[in-house]
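Support case: user asked for a sample of complex input and structure output to validate their parser. Sending the pair below.
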Amino acid sequence: MTTVEETTQTPVPEGHVRLTIDGREVIAPKGELIIRTAEREGIEIPRFCDHPLLDPAAACRQCLVEVEMNGRAMPKPQPACAITISDGMVVHTQHGSEVARKAQEGVMELLLINHPLDCPICDKGGECPLQNQALRHGRAESRFRDQKRTFTKPIEVSKQVLLDRERCVLCQRCTRFSAEIAGDPFIELLERGAHQQIGTAKTADAEGWGAVTPQGQPYQSYFSGNAIQICPVGALTSAAYRFRSRPFDLVSAPSVCEHCSSGCAERTDFRRGKVMRKLAGEDPEVNEEWICDKGRFAFRYVTADDRITRPLVRENGKLREASWTEALRIAADRLAEARDNGGVGVLPGGRLTVEDAYAYAKFARISLHTNDIDFRARPHSAEELDFLTTNVLGTTPEDGVTFTGLERANTVLCVALEPEEEAPAVFLRLRKAARKAGTKVVHIGQFSTPAVDKTFGTLLACIPGEETNAVLGLREHAADVYAQLGEGGVILLGERAAEVPGLLSTVAGLARETGAQLAWIPRRAGERGALEAGALPTLLPGGRRVDDTEARAEVAAAWGLEALPELAGKDASAILTAAANGKLHGLVLGGVDPDDLPNPELAREALARAEFVVSLELRRTAVTEYADVVLPVAAAVEKSGTYLNWEGRPRPFDIAIENTGILSDCRVLDTLAVEMDTDLFTQTPQAALADLDRLGTVEPPVAQPGWTIEFEGEGPPKSPLRHGKARLATWHRLLDNGSLQDNEPHLAQTARETVVKLSTATAQGIGVGAGDPVVVSTHQGRIELPAEIADLPDGVVWLPANSGPSTVRASLGVGHGDLVDVRAGGGE
Amino acid sequence: MTEPVTDPLTPVLTKRWTEPDAWSIETYRRLGGYTALPKALRASPEQLVALVKDSGLRGRGGAGFPAGVKWSFMPKDEDKPHYLVVNADEGEPGTCKDIPLMMADPHSLIEGCVIAAYAMRSHRCFIYVRGEALHCYRRLHNAVREAHAAGFLGENVLGTGFDIEITVHAGAGAYICGEETALLDSLEGRRGQPRLKPPFPAAAGLYAQPTTVNNVETIASVPFIVNAGSAWFKRMGREKSPGPKIFSLSGHVEKPGQYEAPMGTTLRQLLDLAGGMKDGIPLKFWTPGGSSTPMFTAEHLDVPLDFEGAVEAGSILGTTALQIFNETVSVPWAVMKWTQFYEHESCGKCTPCREGTFWLAKVLERMVDGHGTEEDIDTMLDVCDNIFGRSFCALGDGAVSPIQSGIKYFRDEFLALCEQNKAERELAGARA
Amino acid sequence: MTHAAQETFGEETVREAAEIIARYPQSRSALLPMLHLVQSVQGFVSPEGMRFCAEQLELSEAEVAAVATFYTMYKRSPCGQHLVSVCTNTLCAAMGGDAIYAKLREKLGLGERLEGNEETAGEPGEPGSLTLEHAECLAACDLAPVLQVDYEYFDKQTPESAAELVDRLRAGEAPAPSRGPGLRGFRSAERQLAGFFDGEAALESVVDGSSQAVETLRGAQIAAEHGWVAPEAEDVPIPEVEEGAK
């Protein structure tokens, strides 16, 4: 290379290198793999084992290219997926090199010798990388004329995931995904050489050992569906989708998951008005290319038999179908009456889009003249309301904690949050941060959950309900964690923090004191949006406080009203108490389950006692049993809208299933409001959002010292197991009895085992061992489950909140941190 | 250039073997064992690395990489633990030198390990012994115990302040574990599948720490070099491949066995020592260093068996495992048997080796069974091309050696099998 | 631990598993020897055995199965009192290994070729029961054809000598191997491969035994007969290295 040429070359920016690919000069970031650089340049190199989010394996050898370094050709073709680019490198792909072309063709032929020619009946046919690349790069006729390898087909690697081994090309994407990304190494390579195959301990039992009743662990992972999606052939299929449709018969729509507050990007594939499957969408900022199995497989609730498609009105104690006109008229009249006679409370639930939540917020104020609205259909507190107002409201990805920010944090402290169960995408990010960036993850909880292990985390175990003291004790008892929080630390709080007095304020104080960033990660997809939309008794849309005269006037003016109700509203519990006492006459409910509420009995009483109840619902529920008018609303796939995820990031999505005739909540409320002679201007989600945008947001209030409640509790509750009493720890599992998982039998079978967890000492105290039945009870009811010994503090029992027979609120009427009776079960 | 003149046989490593109880520490010490160790420990690690580099000692596991250079890749600081791992997973067909060495003279390996570990600032050494070599495993286990008791192992070796522990580890039956990174994965309790390089073991080997993997014969040579110096070592063998080498003669020779001779000795010379071909039946083909090295024929009797000589003649030196086959042996049959071995031992990680050995074994089995075609021969050669240099590790390269070289020298024999088939019938129903 | 595993692998095995783990800087390295240990208890690696290893090492059962199915020496069905491994790799095969293997199959009444490498004659574990397998190169090519019983070498076999050997094993005898100590059965061999020799005396008793086959010593003997030697070794000081080289 001459100096003249050098001067004419564009300079290479810091951290970049200059190389040549197929004669084209390329400047690319140092450390990048050849295959990525080439791809960005539009040069597609075929591959199977390569996946940008997995560690390189270089196993399939499909991506072989010729490489010259320092002016010398490397003697063998190199895997483009595993070689990092360097300055002066010259790469010849199959387009410019006969060696690379022949190498790739050779590998393709080898991959196909044992691959069955069953494309016409294979689910992957039509979207199969092997099929596509074989057509593009393969030989027309195979030279292989001997017997192909065959296997018994298919085998169950889990109740959801099936494996046709003869189709497998052993790229190990599934095993690498499971081991690296999910941390669930329950699917592995078995056997050796040409007999090598993918399997689990259970399939190994069945195949290699011929065990009559194979007992090994199946592939139990909340993320198993990703392995199916990244399988480059049709080897892995889901029981839910297998043989259901052909890729070319499907219509795809980008969508956003409705199941948790992460807001994962998805692709919804549907046919003739029915969702056939969901796939992970790609969003590097949020879910990368992964989603959890709930997000992927739980969608048939939409087509459940008890789906409500026509309005219902109660007549002679029974619901009957009615026209929209009739139902709306009755609802409008009776709500107006209830409003004027004592008031109406609004419980929109936590699963709404921003647009729908805004419609509820506006409907409460304009049509019902009240601030009695609260989206929190779960245990909650005044302290929480304060916390949300001062610490969560208005935060955005620009100024708050983000998924990618977790990777940059040196320490992440999870308080009252089970990321794998409550926000799986957060869990994956934490694991990635710990694995790739050495982020230290600390969990304040009750026992070493799988997530503690899989985030290489530390558990700070405490008695349930005593999390506040655990946080207060950090400085003294975990000085290293405390110090690290001040050096780029992040604190994540879960929804059950609201159940522990003082916890939210204390954590807020800790964040202020250390300078750590703080994020609140609710379980439901709509809570963060409802907060911003003003579906709370003390907050108007856009972060305006009800007790702020100016803010109220601003909103009133924007809405074309003279004034808004001045009195701060009641929270969900107070609304239900007032209704149960006959003080509130009416209730409007969105997707709310009484058994999720802090006091299910009270909720049922309120529903029974209220003069008039309107329910906006998808399906027959406990609420519709009491409702006087039921108005059908659209499920997520039937409407457009925006979720605001826990980061405060808008996650807009378009309608997937069109022309169902089912309306979204905002439209239903708009029409109802019109019947009540008020205007919401929320006839479409677009209109609702535009209206909310016009209103704009205000600067969130800055937390002032002394402005939040400092914890002044009564000191730590004493709770060793005495007189058969234990303290209850409980939270929701990802896969449980939740109604949005209905109609998914295969998914349900992959749920974790329903057990009561307790320590060895606690178990001995009541005379039980592992697997023995244990009864947990209160004055209200009992739950009996097999015992599992875990590292809980003594005197503590854990129950899943809503799994199988373990319906904690409904059966026991208590929650996290409450006292329960514990004894040996069986033989009654 | 004149090669040094030595006796036809130069027993160094094998010299002690003839003593009764050669494996015990008493015998070893009586015959000059453990004299290199104190000398080595008085020198600096740098001196030892320089000495081994200067001796020209090349790895005896098959690849022939200069041992001193490999040692010099280890970091000079001790920020992290360093590991020395001895590859005693002898399994290359035809190779049978390390097992007799460990059985007869385990202390030479132990002494070599302590010196090598000191030179590489390692305090932990693992000897990964092939599981089927149970008697070697026992003898090494015993040697470690004896060396401990004598103060050659453990803390503060010979009062020098140097600490070293050796753990003898048994494999479980997998040829691929002879590949150094597969061995490391296996030693970590995983499937023995090779690792991506870089990082190379010297940067991130066992437990991702700096590691050197050396062959048994290589390490056992070290005490001799420490004692007698590099000039002495270079008086044997050839300039680029110095030293004595254990040649293992097997098969159709009158006196098979272990012959330690200077590098560069020819098969003709060795056959003379071994009493010639068994029963006088002429030589047909042979391997210079195990089945992975392309076969030679009677034309190659005078090829100097050292790293350069073997390559110049179209093969590689490998492990100097000379498998001798006479005219009674069918080449296609032998090639089929070897190919079945590679198919059985392919780890399965990469496509070319896993699928390619499967395919080649099928074709060869069919061909030996009399159902091959001339087209199959060309297909096999093309499949070999698609495996050679395309596989993840060298197993794939080795697997095609018998086929490529067998067809190169004995194509007629393959053709003859196919002619037989042509005469019979077109194979029915086998087209995929 | 599961109840089944507890019954099979008692406290002693748990303690020994811990002993294996203690040999290594990282516990997972203990998996291969631990599978040998499990095999010494049951005569094969059973599903419970894999579960036992998974529990001791805090691995998933699949991770253990992945390893157990990779290595040939881990057997999936109960083995006989002795394991007979006949080398049928090319060189041994050409020297008679294939004939030996065929002869032994016939002798043991083993019918059509089964899946996998090994087959068992007799009730597994009972005296005289034998598991027969064809082995890859056993690294004793100069002594071809070879076979191993419980990983002890029987060199330079013929179909007849091998048949006689098998007869004696079936009769409960323990013929002496060409090299190595007397036979004690497959499970005892596996216990040693797990690193347990059960005391110094026991170790000494197995460490001894012949190892000097004529072929092994051949070169050294011929050299001695002819007075051939390597160049004389003198004690040469180890050269200093320049500072710069450090």
